[in-house]
Amino acid sequence: MPCGVRLRGSHLVSECKGVLVVGEKDTVRETLSKATRGVVSVGRRLADGLSEHLSAVFIGDNVKDPAEQSIRCGCDRAYLAEHGSLCEYDPDLYLPVLQKLSEDIKPRVVLAPHTALMQDLFPRLAYRLKTCVVTDCIHVELDDRGAALLMTKPIYGGNALAVYRCSSSPHMATIRTHTGLSAAPAVDNQGEVVRLDVDTDLHFCRMKVTNRIREELNGVKLEEAEVVVSGGRGIGGTDGFEHLRELAMILNGALGASRPPCDLGWVSSLAQVGLTGKMVAPNVYFAVGISGSMQHLTGMYESRCIVAINKDATANIFKFADYGIVGDYRAVLPPFIENMKELLERKV
């Protein structure tokens, strides 16, 4: 199959081992994405266990800063593939870069955050490298001999966990957001940024961006919020979500929802938390009018503290909640919101 990208020059060091992280940048802040920081943390742990190097690769336009930040977060080397034509994700351009790099440095393990981009790119890369990939992993570790990677992921809608072992090399996995502890910048960490000389041939591009619609984000990003206030079908409609939105704003948090309110158009689909939505792990998660289906729990079970409000005392959500209130949210939330306002005013 023809290649849309050619890597020129001889910048690569001959390696037959190590861990490679395929990183992404936060397109809003132009910095290393939070999801990539978590994967770097996981990769650092694996590399230390193997006594091998940790590398990262960044593809795109203006990705030098995220590459340098990955060094400060623990990477020994960061590969930089920058070109104006790489500013938009195109598998015909991104895939040859990763294939060529992987064949040159021969990493033992290749990791990436479980994002929409990597869900598309990683299976393609695994096919090119004649190996397999396990997606949406919540835990990865080396076996007792350190010879194989054990990859754990939820199956059957989150009702069970499966552990996979790959007999081919490299071992490839995408890591669910929030699974790894976010790597704190290690300012004394020493590493090198290796710039790849990329020559693109747009003749092989089969995808063209004709339009872009950006939805404005008001407030805190759901995946990064320390507090998430989510509502379910029990909220009853659009008006009910205004109470939740108010509480989220007071606590400097984000508004979330289970799937039914999103399907019914009560809130944006971008607020959906769960197996088919976003994965969150805030310090506090309010589940209001949410029954607690496994599909929803899969997206928020890593929350440090879960507060459930439901008028059904038998709701499944109470089995997972740290604090539970049995009652109608219409009666519970207004006085709670007022008390929170008073407490915050006292602090000021």
Automatic annotation (TrEMBL):
UniProt key word Electron transport: yes
Entry binding sites for FAD: 233, 258-259, 272-276, 289-296, 310
Pfam assignment, any one: ETF
Keyword entries, A-Z: Electron transport, FAD, Flavoprotein, Transport
Entry cofactors: FAD
Domain Electron transfer flavoprotein alpha/beta-subunit N-terminal: 19-209
GO BP terms in the entry: fatty acid beta-oxidation using acyl-CoA dehydrogenase
Cofactor note: Binds 1 FAD per dimer.
GO-annotated molecular function: electron transfer activity; flavin adenine dinucleotide binding
Superkingdom, taxonomy of origin: Bacteria
PANTHER family the UniProt entry points to: ELECTRON TRANSFER FLAVOPROTEIN ALPHA, ELECTRON TRANSFER FLAVOPROTEIN SUBUNIT ALPHA, MITOCHONDRIAL
Assigned protein family: Belongs to the ETF alpha-subunit/FixB family.
Name of the protein described by the UniProt record: Electron transfer flavoprotein subunit alpha/FixB family protein
Species of provenance: Candidatus Abyssobacteria bacterium SURF_17
Lineage: Bacteria, Pseudomonadati, Candidatus Hydrogenedentota, Candidatus Abyssobacteria
